[in-house]
């Protein structure tokens, strides 16, 4: 049952050198720089997003993930979810409005996997970049790089996938669209959605808590993925794997690294999910095909390089 969480709102990523990071996220992926704050953080968005930003970059001594935010229906929903999180056993923290630029108050909590999440209900809206709300054109001129359409999801690694899945489903109203189970029928991965997308957040079981695997950005077509691959080679960007297809979600994909070592993905296509759909299950012995459908084999770097 849906609880009022609408969609991914933003992700804050730690980078080692801001100007080098902007060459990756702004110039290569094609996000639009929207603002900076007095902490030196840079705020970016993809062109179809109506909120002012979806990606925040923070210069730090080590790469990785600070937090992921999900947008809720309204302030009453935020208050109700805060109570539900506490009843589940989460320790929550309220951050005031404008702690993030032009964003309302936020409720932060930590998942059993060791990741920081937050919920918010209000953020300044600037509309789709370069387009009007009345009689809009098909797309704006002046886009750069891969021309990312939206920030889509993150994949995270950490322990206690089962309890984390319960938190997202029972408290926040997500569905398990897909999962991976081991030979003992124990869930080792959850792909969770609060919408009709294949996933809005995903977790893979890992002994070390709080690890960041990738942030993903949606493109429109397979040709866009191939063009992204060309740009990765043209700019001598570190490639992980692809272009290829996933078995899980069936999305077409390519993975690559920012200058700080954080992994990025651009993908297109993929499955859809409605509340009456059963969970799709992959068995651990088919994990190679689940992750890389064409190769049918695991890439060790994909499984072990985390920030």
UniProtKB/TrEMBL annotation:
Cofactor(s) required for function per UniProt: Fe(2+)
Stretches assigned to the VOC domain: 7-122, 150-269
Domain of life: Bacteria
Pfam families from the UniProt entry: Diox-like_N, Glyoxalase
Keywords tagged on the record: Aromatic hydrocarbons catabolism, Dioxygenase, Iron, Metal-binding, Oxidoreductase, Repeat
Reactions catalysed according to its record: catechol + O2 = (2Z,4E)-2-hydroxy-6-oxohexa-2,4-dienoate + H(+)
Subunit structure, interactors included: Homotetramer.
Protein name: Metapyrocatechase
Species this protein is from: Sessilibacter corallicola
Biological classification of the source: Bacteria, Pseudomonadati, Pseudomonadota, Gammaproteobacteria, Cellvibrionales
